[in-house]
Task: structure prediction
Amino acid sequence: MVAAVAMAMVWTAISLGRSPETTETASGQSGATAECSDPGGSVQGSQESGQTVVLIDRSASAQTSAVYAKAVDPMLRSAVMEGRTVWVAGFDASATVLEADRAVTAVVGNNNNRIHARAEALKCLRHWASAQTAAKAANSDVLGALAWASTTASGVSPKIILSSDGLSNTGCVDLNLLSRAESPATVAARCQATQELPELDGFSVLLVGLGLPAGQSSVVRDGDRQWLIEFWKGLLTAAGARSVEVATDQDKVSFQAERPPSTPTDVDVALPQIARTETGSTSTVSLNDRMLFLTGSSELGPTAEDALGQVLSDLREVDGTVAEVTGHTDSRGTPRSNELLSQARAQSVSAYLKDQGYPATRIRGAGETEPDPECLEKDAPKEELAARQACNRRVEVVITFGQPQGGR
Result:
């Protein structure tokens, strides 16, 4: 006689630190509802089926009407059908608690019991996922959540599904402190030195919603989103992940919804940029100030050489000359101080290019008088102002084409 099969759900509150010291079991809270309680039978899961951890970002920039939870629904269904043990966890930047629920999917028993148990598991997983919408702290500790997941999942081919906009603003991956010229491997080495890099050896990671902030809390252009995707893929690969994939987002608009009231306010994230615009026989390369200078300084910083190396590559590719170097600032500060700072920054960039054999015909400081059309600061919503100001702090290099060598 085939034994009846059942499923168990457990809710735990676990410290979000890299090495949790306390684990508290709670009942009647979060996922432990009447709908999702242990029916009392024996659990017969399978270690061979492996485990999946689903991480749902509930920080202010991601937290909205459960769109990040809905985005993982197909993955939940697949994990249940594979007979995997599935964890669902909501995370933000709380230093004290990460909420997690677990469903052990039945894989042994008669077919009717297995179908029923899997249906119940999926129902509970969906319930728990949709419940992860209340941020308990501002900002988003993505690496902390990944570190917890890496010490939680086990078995054959463990998987992590990260549903997040990826706009991390804590610790060694605070994107407000990074330069686009830094490689993911360089950032990974720094995170490892500070013991913040999770150990993802053997894990498959699926990224969902990268660069798609909820509630339009940050401005993310398509080019910036691609950089963000490549950054996280590179960083997690450097952390040892067996594979890192990005889910295809069919409808970006689905991530844009009104943020519920009383949500903790995240620090906005301004991504470092290199943008190129071609017009006729010229190309304008725009470099974010964070790639070139320290805050408030006109002296080239440690990542400037890598960033300007990309300008030199453009020049060599088209046998070009430098027609103009222009510095720009945001609207903070006095017009005179902004003009002087932008002029000094343009001169520093021009001096570097001249040393490499590409003197500029014209050098000027525009201050805040020529903002990027997509980053106008006047009348900007409060939550977007910091990102728009960062977008306007830039140096533009205008290249005039010579004879192209191999095409662009």
Q: What stands out?
A: The longest strand covers residues 321-328.
